[in-house]
Amino acid sequence: MTPHPSADAAAAAPVPAGHTIAVTSGKGGVGKTFATANLAAALAERGERVLVLDADLGLANLDVVLNLLPKVTLHDVFTGRVALEDAILPAPGGFSVLLAGSGLVEYSRLTDTVRQQLLDVIEQVTPRFDHVLLDTGAGISDVVLFAVSLAQSVVVVATPEPTSLTDAYATIKVLAQQQQREHIHLVVNQVARPGEGRIIRGQLQQVVDRYVRGADGTALKLELLGELPNDPAVREAVQLRKLLLDAFPGSPAAQAVRAAATRLVHEAP
Amino acid sequence: MASSPSHRVRADEAASGSLAVGKALQLLAHAGMALPDAVPGTREWLQSLIDALCELSSRDPLTGLVNRRSFELGLARELDRVARSGESALVLMIDIDHFKRVNDEHGHGSGDLVLQAVAKALAASVRPMDTVARFGGEEFAIILPNCSPAFGPTVAERVRRRVKATQVDLGHGEPLHVTVSVGGAFAPQWVRSSAALWIERADRQLYQAKAQGRNRVCIEPAAISPVSSEEKGMLFAALKHQDES
Fold first, then answer.
1. What string of DSSP letters covers B130-189?
2. How would residue A26 be classed by pLDDT, with cut points 50, 70 and 90?
């Protein structure tokens, strides 16, 4: 497992059974939450026990994507109003969710309390699932970097659009330098033609090889987890506020998500 | 309207049935705002009355700028927008230097003239899309949507210089000059933060500008992109090349 110096407490604790995966993106609005939810559904289809934890504390909208009206959220757990078990809710795709709920403004700043609370929750849920997906925020704020540091694997979601690629590269660079990541998975969303994701991965890798070294000189390997085609079914599913895998299970994008989930399972520790 | 406002108010009051709107109309008349011209008591008339009252309650009477209440609403709206769009937005907190001295030496009437002159200078130094507000006392605030970190300091500096160049005619003696200290902070990207936190960050910079000797600008450094232009060049040059091949 990759060492995470910014999460000393996590490193000190016994490594939990489940595979923790942070899903992040440099730029917002590239389909990060969409990808997370559908990857979770694809993993669940394979019989895996999956939890999606909405770690985008500042701008949580997993509930919007899944069309859920959360009665109990992470905020209630943080404030001790409910037990953690009661906040883990079933989601449409056969997986479980732990929702942050919108408007948790106070969590947009990483205080020691927030840090500890998030750490506690993740430590408690991880042994109960095969995969715990952390839907983190976009950008490279300290909250996002901390949430990512708690995960064993990282998935960066990007689109071929230039600002998205630049911001994805920035995230990758910071993760390599601050967290000594050696592997980062890439999901390229909204690709116009097959193979575009592979080209983008190759390009990012070239710039990484030239400019990015971890603090201890380690190299970083980018792995293409999947490329999701620019599929009208995606837009339709989003508008219906349904999972792509539920609404259009046979669509090209749904198949691409399943392929990505398969790769993710094979690399699980 | 100016000829017999009280008469007009009574007539409208009668026409609006049981609603007591006399005070509202008096307030509007006193502020020099046009009274609703629809038929008194009708739905349109009531709507325009409500609109006028909203406008009145969002303005600072002395300077005509947006008041603090309305400013905070605007700030929250802007935060929600940038949280999702990732656009760069700047808020400036502006305080007149040694304003107490103006009041003490020239009287409160002169103090009011200074506040009005500064308000005018601020409004004239920003874009129409920006919101200039009187935050309270001698403190002003400006919301600048879609303002990139590269331009923020330039805008703030323009605001400061414009005020410094302003002459306040007191109606007697030498015209007065005042300066302002300016503090600024950018909205956090991709995070839904709170308006209070944003103001607090800009205020901290304002405090620093004061501490460093006043008549200056301090802006919280925006997060520097970890990506150099060389890296960007390499990232896109080869992609373009692959597109062509």
1. SEEEEEETTEEEEEETT--TTTHHHHHHHHHHHHHT--B--SSSSPB---EEEEEEEPPT
2. confident
Give the other-Cβ count within 10 Å of A117's Cβ: 18
Residue-wise pLDDT for A62-117, tens only, equals: 888 888 887 788 888 888 889 999 999 999 999 999 988 755 555 666 778 888 88
B200 is catalytic: no
Say what the ipTM of the complex is.
0.78
- Please list, in sequence order, all residues whose beta carbon lies within 8 angstroms of the beta carbon of residue B5, skipping any fewer than 6 positions away: B25, B26, B29
For residues B62 and B116, is the Cβ–Cβ distance under 8 A?
yes
pLDDT-derived band at B3, boundaries 50, 70, 90: very low
Q: Which domains does chain A have, with CATH numbers?
A: 17-266 (3.40.50.300)
Q: Quick one: pLDDT at residue A113?
A: 83
Integer Cα distance of A184 and B18 in angstroms: 70
| Structure confidence at residue B8 (pLDDT) | 52
Nearest CA in chain B to A26: B190
Q: Does B31 touch chain A (CB under 8 A)?
A: no
**Chain A hits for B83, Cβ within 8 Å:** 58-59
Provide the token pair at B20: 């007591």
Q: What domains are defined for chain B?
A: 5-57 (no CATH), 68-219 (3.30.70.270)
Query: Mean pLDDT for chain B?
Result: 87
Q: What's the pTM value of the predicted model, to 2 decimals?
A: 0.73
